[in-house]
Amino acid sequence: MFLRLWVLGWLMTGLLFSGSTLAAVGEGSLPPLVESLRLEQPLTFCGEVVPLENSDVRERMEKELLLSLWDRDQAVLWLKRSTRYLPVIEAMLSRAGLPDDLKYIALAESALRPHVGSPKGAIGFWQFLPETGRRYGLTVNESIDQRRSLTASTKAAVAYFSELHEKFGSWSLAAAAFNMGEEGLQAEILAQGVSNFYRLYLPLETQRYLFRILSAKLILTQPERYGFHLQDKDYYPPVRFISVKLTSYDETSLTVVAQAAQTDFKRIKDLNPELRGHYLAAGTHTLAVPENTPPDFQERFNQLHQAWSQQRQERIYIVQSGDNLSTIAEQFRVPLAAILIWNRIDLNGPLYPGDRLIIYPAERRTDSP
Fold first, then answer.
1. Domain boundary among 177, 212, 234
2. What angle do CA 329, 334, 337 make, to 5 degrees?
3. For residue 116, what are the CA distances in angstroms to 108, 121, 147, 148, 206?
4. 223 and 254 together in one domain
5. What confidence tens digit (pLDDT) does each residue in 139-174 have?
6. pTM higher than 0.90
7. DSSP code at position 169
């Protein structure tokens, strides 16, 4: 029954993609399912041959490939995002002397989305847990989360992969350890007396993991074979930016940073996904800004930050007896959520008479920080 519904869904997918989208995914038709599963050349991961002659291995591979092809909208996004992010990953893997196939792990982990998270607390392109990210040099705190940074997180992933391969002597086992943790994998190897990924009984997610990665590899290296016919203009362009040093002796608003770069708050956040919230901590930072940012960025920032700091001093409200955040918001005709952002406070936190709040009245200019 499930198989019949699955095939019907496959056929309906071909009918639903019409117009311009149809050109990107199949030119009006989809390849037969059985044909899609016929792998004409040896399949490898990081140079290691996948033993498809083993019927169990072939079945696991075919299942994950079918599931990936079923989720065609996700596969299209894999392809479209690949030109934006994979060149950076490829260059970093190459410089480290690591196999290029490791880049497909980022696809399987996050679909190349910087902010995606898991119920276990993993975040970012490579889905690092906080403690693992910190172990490999990533800053993870209330202000910065470098798991969301493509370059910083890939640098950490390169170091982790190198260590895992040295420990296990196999890239397939290194990938498994990346998914389930090296201690858990080592324990299973010792308990089962087997050191071959394809012969180990591992947690079900990890048993599927390498085959999900291989499915991404097959689709990205042979998109036309699987019915994805994208043109050059369909792919997302690489992110264009320049890196600047910024020193701020006090905490500052990211809106001030955006104004110094002559761009918008959103652009600064998009270019620097590791920055959390609306503020930049005091210190010296390396930031990505639009490539057309004029020179003298630091000088403009200094002037804007000084004006912003002075304005904040003029916008202080002293909490009175009987006040709460709702009444204060109503008094100044501003959203309560804005007060939380301006003051970085918790809605459920205590508020006492004499506390000082920053309040920008509703009549202020909307482009102020």
1. 234
2. 75
3. 12, 10, 10, 9, 19
4. no
5. 999 999 999 999 999 999 999 999 999 999 999 999
6. no
7. S
